[in-house]
Amino acid sequence: MGRVSVTPPPPVGPDHDPWIGLEPTVSRRYVTVVVAALSTILLTIVAFLMPVPYATLEPGPVFNTLGEFNGEPMLTVEGDVQTYPTDGALDFTTVSVTGPDGRLSFTEALWAWFDPDVKLVPMDFLYPDGETAEESDARSAAQLASSKDSSTVAALRALDYEVPEQVSVADVAEDGASADVLEAGDVILSVDGTAVSTPQQAIDVVSTVSPGDPVTLVIDREGAQQELSITTRPAEEDPEVPRIGVSLASTFDLPVQIDNNVGDSVGGPSAGTMFALAIYDLLTPGSLTGGQRVAGTGEITPDGEVGPIGGVRQKMAGANADDAEVFLVPAGNCAEAADGDDFGMTIVKITTLDDAISSLEKLAADPDAKVPTCS
Amino acid sequence: MSDLPPTTDGVLELHPDSPLRRAALEVEQHVAEAGWDQPPRLFALVRTAELVAKQPELAAQVGDGADGSFTPIEQEGVPAEDFEDALTRLAWPDEVHGCAAVIERVMLPQDAAEDLPEDPEAAAAALAEHPERQEVRLVAAVLREGGSHSAVRRRGGTGEPSGDSDLLEGPELVPGLVALLDQTLAAEA
């Protein structure tokens, strides 16, 4: 195309001074011009079909944690443990998202934005640093696996079971302070003489030394105790912070085993709270739901703290499509949940597994009971 | 199906603030105040600090630019018709660091748009009557040094110029318009 370059279409003055004839917008007064209809509405179709780096979050299906997944009971209590019949439903909710390879056109993005049940977000919000589909799936599957463990521990602790916890080495950084010293699977019993049973306790003790100083660890490796010295190194992001170059995990000794067969098509951590409620319901007499259809979402820690999740509005729409009467929302998502239609559901605010249980017990006894809500 | 990072305020900022973003939103706000049915509008973006160094009397209006801000300067005589085509023949002097454009468009869902007649006048007539038509104002701002921000305002929402539920913003939302504006900055003045 023979493109001719000119200075801005308005004249810019004989001496080519860009300031002449240009005024800051703040001082201008404008006249609204009614444009000939034709020129405004002609579509530049090609431009609008160009893909935009955005993704949509749409309401996804719900799954009853008291029901079946892929034709098998979703949760099975193993071993010789008394379980009780349940009633109603405890649905975990999902969102359907555009995959990292998805391509929305501007027009599709626009209509997604118009739809109150759909959320439009920049692609790198969902897939930071150009995460691939494979990486995203792996991350999502790991989060799901972790949520299964956390929900089991949280439910058992809510039932006053003793669930012993130990801290173990999940991964050792190559070339890190612990390379060739620690191995994945080592259980850390103490750091500098202080007994530790959670990752945070171990991190806290290590944090008290100066980078470059040694720490002494007592570990259990395949049943044999060893004492090891590791010279800490300054953290890359903050030279004041000492690091031993490992990632830590919690290992739990479960008094009751739960088989949770959710997988494949579902990922992420946000079903944790609903898993925990279902396990609690299975192991306690009476129905936690009182026969109601309860849906919800929320990450859960082994200690029963409920954490915020993404896509709460889409999950609410999905729950409504499945006729839920009650929807459980992490306190951190309450503002977003309250910003729009409640679909006639009771939107219950939860911060811990215990208060979720307490609210559900009240609602089971009386659907109009006063419980913490997001409104 | 999958999970997402939490969207709670403070956990993850959807639109990190930047001088370019502020300029794009300022332009949008400014144009929105004049209502709908406007011709395309074009703005030069100049670094406020450089503008004020040249014309100190403007400091009272535009600030000192110490925050790295840009001042949008409206261009007159912008052709109302064939605006995109006019952009392809446009170039800016070096003193201009970026530019922003605002156009109104009537949009249809993708499948409906594909069913429009080929003839422009027939297409326009069909569009004007179409039950699914949506009017939007598209705003794109780009910098010579790279980077873009865009916004889309929907007509017929709450009607409030600052009603954020009617405003969609983000990088690269309107890639066609951004590409045209980038070209104007790459061209030799």
Protein model, in words:
The complex is a heterodimer of chains A (375) and B (189). Helices cover 26% and strands 27% of the residues of chain A. By secondary structure, chain A is of the alpha+beta class. A 6-stranded mixed beta sheet of chain A has the order 9-3-7-19-22-23. In chain A, strand 20 and strand 21 form a beta hairpin. In chain A, helix 5 runs parallel beside helix 7. Chain B has one domain (19-186). In chain B, strands 2-1-3-4-5-6 form a 6-stranded antiparallel beta sheet. Chain B starts with 18 loop residues before the first helix and ends with a helix. Classes of the chains: A alpha+beta (375), B alpha+beta (189). Chains A and B meet through strand 1, helix 1, helix 2, strand 2 and strand 3 of A and helix 1, strand 1, strand 2, strand 3 and helix 6 of B. Strand 1 of chain A pairs antiparallel with strand 2 (70-75) of chain B.
Helix content of chain A: 25-40%
Strand content of chain A: 25-35%
Arithmetic mean pLDDT of chain A: 85
- Share of helix among residues of chain B? 25-40%
Name the chain pair whose interface involves the most residues.
A-B, 86 and 83 residues
Order of helices and strands of chain B: HEHHEHEHHEEEH
Order of strands, widest sheet of chain B = 2-1-3-4-5-6
Stretches with pLDDT under 50, minimum 5 residues of chain A: 1-46
Average pLDDT of chain B, rounded to a whole number, is: 81
- What's the story with the biggest beta sheet of chain A? 6 strands, mixed
For the termini of chain A, the CA-CA separation is 59 Å
Q: Quick one: how many beta strands of chain B?
A: 6
* Distance between the first and last residues' Cα of chain B: 50 Å
The shape of chain B is elongated
What global shape of chain A is seen?
Answer: globular
Q: What is the chains' assembly state? A: heterodimer
- As for the number of domains of chain B, it is 1
Low-confidence stretches of chain B: 1-12, 158-163
Helix/strand-derived category of chain B reads alpha+beta
Which CATH first-tier class of one domain in chain A would you pick?
A: Alpha Beta
